[in-house]
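Appendix B, example 12.
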Amino acid sequence: MKLVVVSAGLSVPSSTRLLGDRLAVATVRQAADPVDVEVVELRDLAVEIAHNFTNGFPGRKLAAAIDAVTSADGLIVVTPVFSASYSGLFKSFFDVIDKDALTGLPVLIAATGGTARHSLVLEHALRPLFAHLRAVVVPTGVYAASEDWGAEGLNGRIERAAGELAGLMQGLSGVRTAAADNLTVVPFAEQLASLHSPSGV
């Protein structure tokens, strides 16, 4: 199985990347099958993401990152909180991915911030984003404020969320492939045209 971590941390070292790494280690440890982990650092792709918006196609590194994410069996996404939401870089990366590419993909959402007051960002920003993309979001999201590092509760949340992701990766990987293979998309224009045809079909 393949697990991809998407980190939108900007600094080096990054607490966002650190949280992603800890979640990945816990997921691998709890998975029943061997798991290959790949990390996508969005700060290295910032220029190519911006160019994708203006020229309409991804550069080499961005294309490789998109391919890694869309071919994964499980995804861990971690963003710092900016202005009470995910970072613009984080949102822009998922904006350049085809809107149907994450359908059925198990996703663990996580965020870092300077204060616990932003912990609901998981529920009002990240969970709706991935629900819109029709991913399968694990029940437990992980938010780490500055005071959480080294505190007792963070490890428990990491282990619980990782266990949920590992379980979904094991149970949904076959379902996701079958669903993608059987998906037939009828363009909206054809659906409208069928409503106005003389036969009414």
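The longest strand covers residues 74-82. The longest helix spans residues 152-182.
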